[in-house]
Amino acid sequence: MIQFIAIIIMAAVLYFIQRLIYMKNWAKKLSVDIHFEGKEIFEGEHGRLIETITNAKRLPLPMIKCKFLTSRNLMFDNTTTNQNTDNYYRNDVFSLGGREKLTRSITFMAHKRGLYNIKDAELVGTDMFFTLETVLMYKLYDEIYVLPRPFDTSEFRNSLQWINGEIKSKAHLIEDPFEFRGIREYQPYDSMKSINWKATARTGDLRVNMRDFTSQKVVRIFLNLEDNGVIKRSEACEAAIKVAAGLVKNFTQEDMEFALYSNGVDCLSHRTIRIKRGRGRIHEQEIYRALARIDLKETAEDMIQSFEKIIMDGDGSMCDYYISVNSYDEFQRLLLSYDSMHMSFLWFYIMSGISTMGITPTLLTRMLPVKNWMK
After folding, report:
1. Domains in the chain, ordered, with CATH?
2. pLDDT, tens digit, for every residue of 271-307?
3. What's 117's DSSP letter?
4. What are the beta bridge partners of residue 345?
């Protein structure tokens, strides 16, 4: 009996000693790193989350729980799209020996475009008997861009190929005021602005400057996400963003110069999107990321107020592409007034009833000037 009591006392002493040791030392030389493999992927693609726990001390850790929040739009194996919150709470369990590091690679599917991050992690440690739980908050940060999947069908590509051909074939008709080619005699059809007064004074006859022609037209994309209806058309807005991404991809492949303007609100700057003209892969990536950051929960600015001045500052060297989820009268009047200035443009009107998993060709109107489309 005395031996039995002594064993119980010794077990209790050992239990409280190990409990005290774990309370004071479990978090020492313990670190966690959670980061995305890569900084950007497209909608529908799979990515990886790398989770590493390092125990650099001799004391083994029988169980460590690593908890963190991420978006439910990054779908891990056990997540669904019908959760009630925007966040997904992940809880991973590790067991580490002394001076051991464990790394896990967790696959997820990018369900929806956006900018997603991981902010901080919560580590929960226990003792050898799993009767103690202590918590450590660990500071970390990483983010990933889920880029909008560019709209791409054979009908869309063929139409853009024809339109781009028209733009390029007419490019030589547009004079570039910065390219001087020479001086010639004045003709009745010449503008007074083109007269070279110094050459005229020197020769006694009217002389005009000759300009070279621009090698390429500039394309401007206007993405209108204004959605003021009682029933919100978020799926149509997402489809419009995909169409904009499809145009960007096409113009980059054609080595065309383009700009993008949208009245959608950037989730970081909380301002509308304005990306000036440029070309190439870096410019393409900048626009893809800007499209990923558009927050449809924020109210888009009035299209007329946001872009009327920019639109009316256009000239014959530009071709405008309008992508809109609505066709209200003021917007149509703006485009018709722009058309009256003999500026070229096309309007993509995104219809209702769009599936977020894809866009069919029937969701895009004919790519015609708006005055013809409305007849």
Report:
1. 29-147 (2.60.40.10), 154-171+215-373 (3.40.50), 181-213 (no CATH)
2. 999 999 998 999 999 999 999 999 999 999 888 888 8
3. E
4. 320
Q: Following DSSP, what letter does each residue of 306-355 receive, concatenated?
A: HHHHHHHT--TTEEEEEEES---HHHHHHHHHHHHTT-EEEEEEB-S---
What backbone phi and psi angles, to 5 degrees, belong to 337?
-70, -35
The token duo for 73 is 């739009």
Q: 0.70 exceeded by the pTM?
A: yes
| Confidence at residue 355, expressed as pLDDT on a 0 to 100 scale | 36
Query: Nearest-5° angle of CA 272, CA 257, CA 190?
Result: 110
DSSP 13-29: HHHHHHHHHHHHHTTTT
> What are the beta bridge partners of residue 115?
145
Strand pairing partners for 161? none
Q: Which residues contact 75 (CB under 8 A, 6 or more apart)?
A: 81, 108, 109, 110, 111
Q: Round to whole Å and give the CA distance between 144 and 111.
A: 13
d(CA 215, CA 237): 34
In order of 11, 74, 129, 154, 240, the CA distances from 347 in angstroms are 80, 33, 68, 19, 11
